[in-house]
Amino acid sequence: MNKRILILLALLLAAAFVLSACSQPTPQVIKETVVVEKEVTKVVEVEKEVTKVVEKEVVATPTPSPEEMDPLANVDPSGQTVTYWYQHSRKREEGLQKMIQRFNETNEWGITVKGEYQGHYGEIYKKMLAAIASGEVPSLVVAYQNQAAAWQLSDALVDMNIYVHSPKWGYSDEELQDFFPAFLQADISSQFNGMRLGFPPNRSIEVMYYNMDWLKELGYDAPPQTWEEFREIACKAKEQPFSKGPGEGMGYEISTDASRFASMVFSRGGDLMNEDRTAFTLNTPEARDAMSFMQKLYQDGCADIIAEKYGDQADFGVGKLMFTIGSSSGLPYYKDAVNDGAQFNWSVAALPHTTPDPVVDIYGASLSIPKTTEEEQLAAWLFVKWFTEPEQQAEWAKISNYFPVRKSTAAELGDYFAQNPAYATAFGLLKYGKVEPPVAGYDVVRKKISEAYNAILEGADVEETLAALEEEANQILAENQP
User: How far apart are the first and last CA of the chain?
Assistant: First the structure.
């Protein structure tokens, strides 16, 4: 082959090799390109998802209107007149009227409250039934929880939760925590889906009154903590009368009131209804134990039945009676009875109990707001709210000797506690409170309880009597359902 042709072929082969090598990509470049493409794809997809979520949240949370936040926001109570039906008389009525006058003169809305005495609780209950039927109801009315529930069978009352929790007109969380929990709970109705049918202006508790001087004469330095110790002291008091007394003694005089029955059941860890308040439980081990105990105490002569209304209070005052059990609202009357009688040292305590801590029966009427107009209803509530402020509560406690409903009121009662040590002792028991059934029909059941208690004292079989009582009570409850 020609030498020139061989050289040309060699040059062409070399050029082809170089071009082939230059056009081949390196493995490293290919790897980086693929990775970058994948990362970019991920970022785009995530950004799309985040955008969709944010748009959905904005659509789902519209700003509520003031009316939706508080249905009472635009209600104006200015210039309203509130008619208030109450049961207070004598010193309590006089003091209450002065407080009402001060509210009328100082409230910023120009609300006028007209307080009207309408008789005792039973009379007010009947008058209210008639008022509901006629459509001429008061703006504010006193009622026990079971009475309010009975009125609500006619859809006559306002659910006061709307006022209590109103951002504009109600209480803050801090203020609500200042109330004794048992006081607030009492007016919540299980029969009406948690409606608040009333609000507490004051409360009383069941306490045991005892003669301190006589107790020491019998060799004891403290009131009984157990029911067996109560029996022991009561029987000794029968055998060894008080040195300042009339020469005869008795351990305890029995009141068959339903609240005495409830207190004795509570002190043993029992209750009068089941947990969800759908049935009475009056034939429990605690109830049978309480009634068997009282039956034997009576049969053994260590206890007697009260001869007449307030007869136990009178006998206690002259030094004839070691123990009585009753309402703390009676403290001023016991004080007068002792001062006018044997003039001895006395005090109050929680009932004997089998529970680790005492359990005290707390009761008292509340204030209910009948349905009228939104403006009148709000005006009534504003008086209730004012009345439950610590300053007014302290004033009312001194006037009425009821217990205030707010814990902070204690700071306003230092001098009163010092002057009334028994009141101070009872005040210390408020944290152990438990309430009786707040259901429609309980007023009738209370009478049945008292009748059964009397029958047991006269020798009726305890279990049979309580079984019949429970059955009848639940029939009454069934007849008083909404």
Answer: 124
404 part of a folded domain: yes
For residue 147, being part of any structural domain is answered with: yes
238 and 358 belong to one structural domain: yes
Question: What is the per-residue pLDDT for 69?
Answer: 73
**218, 130: one domain:** no
Mean pLDDT by 10 residues, the chain (482 residues): 42 38 38 38 39 41 56 96 97 98 98 98 97 98 97 98 97 96 94 97 98 98 98 98 97 98 98 96 98 98 95 98 97 97 98 97 97 98 98 97 96 96 96 95 97 98 98 98 94
Q: What is the pTM of this model?
A: 0.83
What is the domain extent for residue 392? 81-203+364-433
* 9 within some domain: no
Domains held by the chain: number: 2
112 has which bridge partners?
81
d(CA 176, CA 237): 46
353 and 269 co-located in one domain: yes
